[in-house]
Design a protein that fits this description.
Blueprint: H1 8-25, H2 48-57, H3 60-68, E1 71-76, H4 77-84, H5 99-108, E2 114-116, E3 120-124
Antiparallel strand pairs: 1-3, 2-3
Helix pairs in contact: 4-5
Length: 130
């Protein structure tokens, strides 16, 4: 009895399943990004400009630099204040969702291991359990 020939879809499904199984056993979870090394499907054809554009669009290089400085989590000022404003401000107080109020909240909570970016709060590994 002949076995059916393995299709490209079968191979892709198998490869993705093994990557997801590997990623699900690791702690913390990893982000998996798929990028195309070229626009045309040619063997041994690598378009470095295309890959560079994809890396830039996905903010991969920025994320690597931030992680190298020890900041494991990024959260926008708006999301952070929406989630945690009641820890340092009154419930009936109207808190503007600004960078300065984010800084004030962190100071009132006496947190360390953070820095403010242009649009996001960067939290270090030691403080990320907040």
């Amino acid at each position: 009895m002949l076995l059916p020939e393995r299709t490209v879809t079968d191979s892709l499904h198998s490869a993705l399943s093994s990557v997801l199984n590997l990623a699900s056993t690791e702690d913390p979870p990893h982000l998996i990004l798929c990028m195309r090394p070229q626009k045309k499907e040619l063997i041994n054809d690598y378009d470095s400009k295309s890959v560079q554009i994809q890396l830039h669009a996905l903010n991969v290089l920025e994320t690597i630099l931030i992680r190298q400085f020890g900041f494991a989590r990024r959260i926008s000022f708006v999301d952070f204040l929406n989630r945690y404003q009641y820890l340092a401000f009154d419930f009936n107080e109207n808190v503007e969702l600004t960078k300065e109020n984010c800084r004030l909240l962190l100071l009132r909570l006496k947190m360390d291991g953070w820095t403010l970016g242009k649009n996001k709060l960067l939290i270090s590994d030691s403080s990320r359990n907040l």
